[in-house]
Structure prediction request, 150 residues.
Amino acid sequence: MIQTLYETHLQVSDLDASIDFYINLGLELGLKAESRRVAYLYIGKDRQMLGLWEVPKGNEISKRHFAFGTDLDLLTKTIDWLKEKGIQPVTMLGKEPIEPIVHAWMPAAAVYFNDPDGNELELISWLPNDPCDIEGVVYLSEWQEMMKDK
Prediction:
């Protein structure tokens, strides 16, 4: 019955700064409801939605994690692309952001970064291999080397 994730929502401290951040990533503003301090942004051709809800000043934000999907060829360019946009990729699972990392149990390659409020974001791409039982993560180049003979 479930075929896709249609929308997800985040709490933010500054709605306008968050709108700018996500537009900088390529999302499209669908609606900004000033009276409710909420905005909805479209993601990709299927127009999945990200809702941004500004919390009142002084209230703590509940931080979240979610991933944007992308193609592998684009993912290999993500670290430079993020840096060009003024966004620093972050270390994940002990791996510095020098190239995408691979979650072997899926398998999928990913790059992590944070939004202005510290929500953990990920760009991820499925890999064409079978899942492997590898503890932790490896860099994409290591994964590709491991998969040469498989």
Summary: The chain has two domains: 1-62, 63-150. The longest helix spans residues 15-24. Strands lie at 7-12, 28-33, 38-43, 48-54, 65-69, 101-103, 108-114, 120-126, 138-139. The CA atoms of residues 28 and 42 lie 5 Å apart.
